[in-house]
Amino acid sequence: MQVFVQTLVNGVTTGMLYALIALGYTMVYGVLKLLNFAHGDVYMIGAYIGYFVLHWFGGPTALSAPVPLVLLVMFALAAGGCGALGVAMERFAYRPLRDAPRIAPLITALGISFLLENTVLLLFGGFTRSYQTPSFLPFSSGLHIGALRIDIVQGMIIVLGVLMMLGLRWLVNHTVLGKSMRAVASDREAAEMLGIDVNRTIALTFFIGSAMAGVAGVMSGLAFNQISNTIGFLAGLKAFTAAVVGGIGSLPGAMIGGLFIGLCESFTSSYISSQYTDLIVFGILIVTMLVRPTGIFGAPTLQKV
Amino acid sequence: MARLGVDEWVARSGERRERQSGWRGRIDQARARVGWWPRLALVVGLGLVFGQIAANVNVQTVAINSLIYALLAMGLNIAVGWAGLLDLGYIAFFGFGAYGYALFSSNALGSGGAGGAHLPAIESIPIVLVAAGAVGVVIGLIALRLSGDYLAIVTLFVGQAFVEVVNNIDPGTLGGVNGLYGLDPVHSFGVSITTPKGLYYLVLAIVAILAVVLHLLDTSRTGRAWRALQDDPLAASAMTIPVNKLKVMAFSFSATVGALAGTLFAAEQNNVFPTNFTANILILIYACLVLGGVGSIAGAILGGIVVTVGEQMLSSPTDAGYLFYGLILLTLLVRVRPWRYLGLLIAGTIVFGLAVRAIVSAVSASAVAGAPGSSGWIGSLVSHWVIVPAHPATYGNILFVTLICALIAIIRLQGTRRLLAVVPTIFAAACCWESRLIVNPAITTQIMIGAILILTMAARPQGLLGAHRVELL
Amino acid sequence: MRPRFILIAVALLALIAAGCGSSSSSSSSASASASAGSGGAKKCTTSIAIEGPFTGPVAQIGLEQLHFAQLAVAMDNAANATNVTLAQDDTQLTPALATQKTQAIIGSGAVAVVGPAGSQEVNAVGPLFGRAGIAFISGSATLPALAASGKNPTFFRVVPDDSVQGPQDANYIISHLKPKAVLLIDDAEAYSQGLANAMTPILQKAGIKVNRQTYNGTDTGATLANALSSLVTSQLNPSETVTVLPWQTAANAQQFGLDVQQQRKKTILFGTDGTNSPSQFKIPGTYVSNFGPDISSSSSALDKSLVSGVAKYGPYGAFGVPTYAAADVLMKAISSVCKAGQTPSRSNVLAAVKKTNIPASANPLGVPVSFQSNGNLTGSPGYLFKITGAGKYIPVPNK
Q1: CA–CA separation, C73 vs C50, rounded Å?
Q2: Yes or no, beta carbons of A6 and C252 under 8 Å apart
Q3: Are strands C135-138 and C155-157 parallel, antiparallel or unpaired?
């Protein structure tokens, strides 16, 4: 029983983190049909911004301000910084390619990924850094009921994940910006003719998506012991998988996809085999995709003739 | 550019007009008159001449690697460029071919480290290719249900799963993380190719034959059907084109070519390891294909050569320095007109650097105490121009960030202001290069690969030899 | 049409330049050896190369090695009045890249090589270096088979192989920690599996139940955390009072230790040299075995100068120390060749490396350096540390 509960908690935490990254991914995809492979690296930058803010406040063991305030500043600056990075990426790398063949921005995204990853390596070195979260958010604080043990960071990930998904849904469905996003997504040129500022809408989409990656980066720094310049690649891959499995372009889909992968991973390694986890999870995902070829939440697209 | 009411003929009218005038137009016309076959003969001839003059083993190895990447890009082009299937699991076929060759050419299939198959290449390579084609059919059948990015993700799993399989399953036979090594060289009929030069000619011959086969395929009914499939699968199926069969065929052909490259790669390396077939290599193959031009055989070959040679150059600090300064000069040459502006700009940059250096050295002697990182004539040329402090690490980092900001500013600025902003930017770039970037050549290589990918795509999204496609609304 | 022409021009220029570059590097090698010959013993000018993972997922350990090699070259150049330059060749721990870089090194003027880091890379490049007669000294490739049967005739290593370190650690666990069962997790890398394979039979022979598990060491972030956390949840049984972590990333071991604490389980962690990092792995009560003493808190003059000297190149990391020893061996070999009035050619340097005899006091690993005919170290250094409550590494006797 305890193993089951703990495995569940592990899976949900991991899955929510995948989902946090996947939300931004799927948003950009939904509007631009662009696979932004550099999204994972934006997340990595977010984790580094959080780290430097933490040390600006005196470091994990000697914080000079109350913990909630420090956390707030970490999240805010990471979101702002990554958002700005996202806008810059869109403006200077993706915008010139908006009408190019679909594979060209894919290569640009890989180029940006190389650039960001190695710029961080050049500037900050290759060694892994740690937020050392237990020294300011101890394991003892959190929810402990019987076998269920959710510490405070895990709780934060879960709550934040759900809140951000709901917030984004509200944004897309009930605001003017959301309306213009949907318009741009369905037909960019028609939206332009209707007086929607396409460039601004796309830039804002990038800002929001990248800001969410920044938040996810800080969250992962808090939850897991290590950040390094290479954490972005795998995270981006998992987020891409989560977004596609959930049905790419769908916000609840990204969340469900992330949870699905996280749970698959933790239950496979707890109950079946830690050696073959990746293989088994790939197998599950391939079968899922074959049963639902457009993802769990994806609607079959109507083909225009 | 998708424009309403514009078709390809109209869109290309400007191009045709340009073609008819000037020396460049004349060259272009002459080039267009040369058919496909003479061009292939020319390229192969150049390859043969190169093989004769390249005496250095390192140059020969780079040449073999270029051709292997060209093969890989040609194979990927079948699925991605012609049939329009975004196949992110292509690397698995490359690995499959390499491991297939390794199993048949080593002790791996024997018992207890002795014996083994040791088949001649004329037997082992066809077996591996047929098997790879069959695996391609299976994956193609799976892929039929999926399209677009959903196909991409499933094939990505296939690629990742390959590495996991060879890492974990049966380490006794496949070698696990320690791989298989000590493979036989390519040998058949008592002839064994042991020198890099011999292997180079073999790979060159295979590339040439494959180029012919693929050209014939491209211009055949199947090739045209693939392009129809890529442009619009729905319309294609309405025209009674067998969409499903074509997709499976594309996967299978592409898998076979990938595996062929794999067998040659294993023979060249003399060993196989799981980490040789990771996503990084897949990225490189995609870079070859896209830089060369998606859909073009010549583009795939050129892409393979440019990427391999470029990577090789970038990893040597001296060559990377030539490339760095060369690219700056070239950009100026191309972008700055008229000529007197160019002269002014270069003179201005030199004077600016000398002036700033004089001021800085007057303020603090240790701020210019460091030596530039470049050696050779570049180093001695710039040593009294750039500013390199005694402890350059932090200074270089700040300069690097400033440089990126300055580049963004230059893109935003217009006219004379842009010209004025270029002067300090070039100086900053040189200082940053000499004090920081060249000190860590490995990291700089990766940064430059990223930057070159982005810039090439921005300058020419369809690749070097790719055709500009007009997307119809 | 213009950009097209320009790009093709760039491509052609690149090709031509590459051709010139490679030919110039071979000619420069000739001139380098010529000048060294004519200069005699006065100024000993040549170049060596280092192969290691300086970018990519394990850049941390590669850069630690690089910085210590740079330090060794700088210190020995100053001490012996030589002028040896160090070329950097990034392999990303990938055999194919290592092969490519090795061909480039063979075509260049380098007379000897530090590295490569991984055993699988040595497997790939060993025969190439052997054919070219270039000595290469690794500071971290520990697979026993590398030194066997003359396959890699010019291979040397300044660290003991797994057949030394593995049994040492296993015997310590058996005689001092006395567990009934052991959880042994490898990270699916060659380094880790080698050690795990060496330890498992010895533990089993002593009647200890070994629970052998694997996780993917190249994972990062949430994926890695999930894998480690699940291992703690489902695999760490109360009877397993010792958990052995022969991993190459210290931060992963720290994450594992935190998971153990968080899930309120009890086990003694036992790490190996890959996890030896006082700044990153500091779970109290843990044992960490290593080839050398912890020089960061040593009082010897050499160790102090190393720790302060390496700061110029990058942060101190214990994993790089053996690479200092490797580069030091090469530098001293080159200097001895020059002092004997000979040209520092590949064959001369190789012969000098074979005759290496560096006293323990000049080696930060604390043992005399001399090589057996198969390239293995003659002595077998082994140190063991216990991590205190304050995160300090305290040496404990390892017998």
Answers
A1: 11
A2: no
A3: parallel
**Mean local confidence (pLDDT), A295-301:** 72
CB contact under 8 A, C21 and B319: yes
pLDDT range class, residue B196, cuts 50, 70, 90: confident
Contacts of C119 in chain B (CB under 8 A): 178
Instruction: Return the ∠ at Cα B166 (arms to B164 and B170), rounded to 5°.
Output: 115
Listed by number, the residues of chain B in 162-181 with a beta carbon closer than 8 Å to a beta carbon of chain C are: 167-168, 176-179, 181
In degrees and rounded to multiples of 5, residue C140 shows phi and psi of: -155, -5
Average pLDDT, chain A: 88
In whole angstroms, how far apart are CA C275 and each of B98, C59, C279, C395?
34, 15, 11, 15
Work out the average pLDDT over B22-43: 73
Give the residue with greater pLDDT, C24 vs A85.
A85
Distant-in-sequence, close-in-space partners of B224: CB < 8 Å, separation ≥ 6: none
Identify whether B338 is preceded by a cis peptide bond (ω within 30 of 0). yes
Is the link from the previous residue into A105 a cis peptide, with omega within 30 of 0? no
For residues B23 and C1, what is the distance between their CA atoms, to the nearest angstrom?
13
**DSSP secondary structure string, A106-127?**
HHHHHHHHHHHHHHHHHHH-SS
Instruction: Report residue B2 as tokens.
Output: 């998708």
**pTM metric for this prediction:** 0.89
CB contact under 8 A, B161 and A279: yes
Q: Map tokens 């994806």 to a residue.
A: A298
Bridge partners (DSSP) of residue C214 are C186
d(CA C189, CA C217): 7
- In this predicted structure, what is the pLDDT of residue B213? 94
pLDDT in tens, C309-327: 888 888 888 888 899 999 9
Report the number of secondary-structure helices (H) and strands (E) in chain C: 11, 12
CA nearest B317: which of B435, B442, B448, B430? B442
**Given CB atoms, is A18 within the 8 Å cutoff of chain B?**
no
* Span B393-397, average pLDDT: 85
What CA–CA distance (Å, rounded) separates B441 from B445? 6
Q: For residue C315, say if its preceding peptide bond is cis, omega within 30 degrees of 0.
A: no
B107-140 burial code (b ≥16 CB/10 A, e <16): bbeeeeeeebbebbbeebbeebbebbbebbeebb
Amino acid at C116: P
As given in the structure block, the two tokens for residue C341 are 């009035």
C183's CB contacts (< 8 A; 6+ apart) are C211, C213, C235, C236, C237, C240, C242, C243, C244, C267
Token code pair at residue A1: 């029983």
How far apart (Å, rounded) are the C-alpha atoms in residues A191 and A181? 9
Average the pLDDT over B207-213 and give the result. Answer: 94
Q: Which residues contact A219 (CB under 8 A, 6 or more apart)?
A: A17, A20, A153, A156, A157, A160
Instruction: Tell me the C-alpha distance between C399 and C385, whole Å.
Output: 12
Return the beta strands (E) in A69-220 as ranges. Answer: 142-145, 148-151
CA A218/CA A231 separation, integer angstroms: 12
Query: Distance between CA A91 and CA B454 in Å, rounded?
Result: 13
Top mean-pLDDT range of B449-463, C25-39, C299-313, C339-353: C339-353
* d(C-alpha B34, C-alpha B200), whole Å: 27
CB atoms within 10 A of CB B268: 25
Each residue's pLDDT tens digit, B96-119: 999 999 998 888 777 655 677 788
Q: Which two tokens stand for residue A219?
A: 């969250």
Q: Per the structure block, which two tokens stand in for B148? A: 């677009």
Window 168-187 of A: residues touching B by CB (8 A cutoff) are none
* Residue A245: closest CA among A188, A185, A178, A295: A295
Name residues whose C-beta falls within 8 Å of residue A238's C-beta, 6 or more positions apart in sequence. A18, A21, A22, A258, A261, C222, C223
> Quick check: C17 and B177 CB within 8 A?
no
